[in-house]
């Protein structure tokens, strides 16, 4: 077969190339090694420029695609195939264009050096041109996947991001989950790895659809979506304002109440934290509405969070705003907040036992920052479920403090004859509520 590949007869070259392609279909690494050692890759790269017979380009691209999907991708990238594959993206034959796209996608997916070779040969522009045709779904999947691979990492300065985002902003409306997922990953890569990428994405108008996709049922879609939104939430106040106005917080509140993988919920918590830490002068939505939506999101995260999520939330300073939520008159919100505090306090008990500590660190924090006052006020809350859960927490974690307050109240209502007068300076002072980081209650 090797001799036939190096033949001067086109028909013999095609026959040998087809035989090599069929050999590769067995998927065996030993077969791949034999072909590599035969040193025929430069010959297949040469065939990519041959227009006669027409099938030779297709078969050669097919062989190189399969090899590029193996552990020997770099050899394909360096054998002279890439510039010819880029040229084939403009072939009049749709099947050849598809095969060239597939091969370039495999090369770009391997390692940064391979991706850089593809980018250096100007693959982006002709690849984007593929999306302007009436494509079959299978071809569109391959093209979107290849584009996503090219966007991974740091794009060179000479690569124009806006034309990519014009295509991606359309692809994120696709009903095909494979296309949708790869388009969302491409968007995340741009937001994460391109200077000014966040603003470019906002200018492309992707935010409304991204926020809608937070309600998508598939975790495969949610992950790149929420990672993209997390990057945007780490932008400046004006950029954060865009996603707030699209109603991201209510969506996050619902998402956090559902059973999704840990990484998705962690990203959701990060977004909430970034938004609530933003400048209130810049976030122009109703402050009350913003607080309430953020409170729902944090409460849901805490009430349904895993051990790692709870520790992450506490490390991001969620305890104080949770305690402040207890002042709201929304029954469902307050009850969810109590469930969140219960979950956090139970995690504190585990930490207490692990560290052989005398006190629950989270209970102590709540006590020192005025949260106990808010919990005690719930004894007068006009809802039985809220009252019972509040009492359960008070009795379990602050029984001594609650008993002291009760005794003090009883002594005022029914003073005994021989009770010694307590001087004002000796009276136990209730903890004073500390202001939150952003200066709100």
Automatic annotation (TrEMBL):
SUPFAM superfamilies: ARM repeat. Gene3D superfamilies: Leucine-rich Repeat Variant. ARM repeats lie at residues 80-122. GO terms for biological process: protein import into nucleus. It comes from the Eukaryota. GO terms for molecular function: nuclear import signal receptor activity. Residues 404-441 are annotated as: Disordered. The keyword Transferase does not apply. SMART domains: ARM. GO terms for cellular component: cytoplasm. The keyword Transport applies. Keywords: Protein transport, Repeat, Transport. It holds the Pfam family Arm_3. InterPro entries: ARM-like, ARM-type_fold, Arm_3, Armadillo, Importin_alpha. Forms a complex with importin subunit beta-1. Belongs to the importin alpha family. Binds specifically and directly to substrates containing either a simple or bipartite NLS motif. Promotes docking of import substrates to the nuclear envelope. This is Importin subunit alpha. It comes from Triticum turgidum subsp. durum. The lineage of its organism: Eukaryota, Viridiplantae, Streptophyta, Embryophyta, Tracheophyta.
């Amino acid at each position: 077969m090797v001799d036939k590949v190096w033949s001067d007869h086109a028909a013999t070259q095609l026959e040998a190339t087809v035989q090599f392609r069929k050999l590769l279909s067995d998927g065996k690494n030993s077969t791949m090694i034999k072909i590599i050692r035969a040193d025929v890759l430069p010959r297949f790269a040469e065939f990519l420029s041959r227009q006669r017979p027409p099938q030779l380009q297709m078969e050669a691209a097919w062989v190189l695609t399969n090899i590029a999907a193996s552990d020997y991708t770099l050899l394909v990238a360096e054998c002279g195939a890439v510039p010819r594959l880029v040229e084939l993206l403009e072939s009049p034959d749709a099947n050849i264009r598809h095969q060239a796209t597939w091969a370039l996608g495999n090369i770009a997916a391997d390692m940064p050096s391979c991706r850089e070779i593809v980018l250096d040969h100007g693959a982006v522009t002709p690849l984007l041109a593929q999306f302007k045709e009436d494509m079959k779904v299978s071809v569109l999947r391959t093209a979107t996947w290849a584009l996503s691979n090219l966007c991974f990492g740091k794009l060179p300065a000479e690569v124009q991001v806006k034309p990519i985002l014009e295509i991606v902003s359309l692809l994120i409306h696709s009903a095909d989950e494979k296309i949708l997922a790869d388009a969302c990953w491409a968007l995340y890569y741009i937001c994460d790895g391109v200077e000014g990428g966040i603003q470019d994405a906002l200018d492309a108008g992707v935010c409304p659809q991204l926020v809608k996709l937070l309600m998508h049922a598939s975790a495969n879609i949610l992950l790149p979506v929420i990672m993209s939104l997390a990057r945007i939430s780490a932008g400046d106040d004006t950029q954060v304002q865009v996603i707030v106005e699209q109603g991201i917080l209510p969506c996050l509140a619902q998402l956090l109440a559902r059973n999704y993988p840990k990484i998705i919920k962690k990203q959701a918590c990060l977004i909430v934290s970034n938004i609530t830490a933003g400048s209130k002068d810049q976030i122009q939505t109703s402050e009350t509405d913003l607080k309430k939506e953020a409170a729902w999101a944090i409460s849901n995260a805490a009430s349904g969070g895993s051990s790692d999520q709870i520790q992450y939330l506490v490390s991001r300073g969620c305890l104080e705003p949770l305690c402040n939520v207890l002042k709201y008159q929304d029954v469902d919100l307050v009850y969810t907040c109590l469930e969140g505090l219960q979950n956090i306090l139970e995690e504190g008990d585990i930490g207490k036992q692990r560290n052989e500590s005398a006190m629950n660190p989270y209970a102590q924090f709540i006590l020192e920052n005025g949260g106990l006052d808010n919990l005690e006020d719930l004894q007068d809350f006009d809802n039985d479920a809220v009252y019972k859960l509040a009492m359960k927490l008070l009795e379990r974690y602050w029984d001594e403090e609650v008993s002291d307050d009760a005794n003090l109240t009883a002594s005022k209502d029914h003073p005994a004859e021989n009770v010694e007068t307590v001087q004002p300076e000796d009276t136990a002072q209730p903890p004073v509520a500390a202001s939150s980081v952003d200066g709100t209650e």
